[in-house]
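Q: Hi! First time doing this. I have a protein sequence and I read that you can turn it into a structure. Is that right? Here it is:
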Amino acid sequence: SERLRAAFAAERFDEIDPTLRLTISIGLASEQGLSGHEQLLVRADAALYAAKRGGRDRVVVSRID
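A: Yes, that's right. Below is the predicted 3D structure, encoded as structure tokens:
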């Protein structure tokens, strides 16, 4: 995920606008200890919002409680 994030950040769009840059925030979660896909999505979504709160353009892995 970090390589994907870095690849987006390195992409240039000079033909459109030399100042245009892309960033992505990624939330990752493990299904370890979870009973279903819905819980996994909730956990990944929480990690995504943590990435956004942390300044965006980052990868955050959810905690396993």
